[in-house]
């Protein structure tokens, strides 16, 4: 889903997701080399048309928020990250992520072990 978005739409979607909700002015302020205000509004409307964002009106401004699809968005973003930064290797991505975490509790370790066991079963 996210990987199919044009670069600017993906950037805007990620900004809104990170912020939780944002106006066109908020989005434009957070962008690198932002386009015009009207272009940002157009891109937000496109994302809303695709069902990825919704808006509410507050003080004569549209305030955009992501449509709750956390599982789809998370999966799509992770796939894009793995393709982009880890040459498509989920194992390399997982190893890198584990390197960022210094302390893991027993539940997290058990969940990881279950995921590894399930992956092993799928390959046999």
Q: How would you describe what is shown here?
A:
There is one protein chain. 63% of the residues lie in helices and 10% in strands. With 124 residues, it is mainly alpha-helical.
User: Mean pLDDT, rounded to whole units?
Assistant: 90
Work out the helicity level: 55-70%
Could you tell me how far the N terminus lies from the C terminus, measured between alpha carbons in angstroms?
30 Å
Detail the poorly predicted runs.
none
State the helix count: 6
**Biggest beta sheet attributes:** 2 strands, antiparallel
Q: Could you state the order of secondary-structure elements as H and E?
A: HHHEEHHH
Radius of gyration, CA atoms, in whole angstroms = 18 Å
Task: Report the count of strand segments.
Answer: 2
Shape: elongated
What fraction of the residues are assigned to beta strands by DSSP?
5-15%
- What spatial order of strands do you see in the largest sheet? 1-2
* Structural class designation: mainly alpha
Give me a quick take on this structure:
Helices cover 63% and strands 10% of the residues. The mean pLDDT is 90.
How is the secondary structure organized here?
Elements (H helix, E strand, L loop, with lengths): L6 H13 L4 H7 L6 H13 L3 E6 L2 E6 L3 H16 L4 H11 L5 H18 L1
Antiparallel strand pairs: 1-2
Question: How would you describe this structure in keywords?
Answer:
124 residues; mainly alpha; two-stranded antiparallel ribbon; 63% helix; 10% strand; elongated
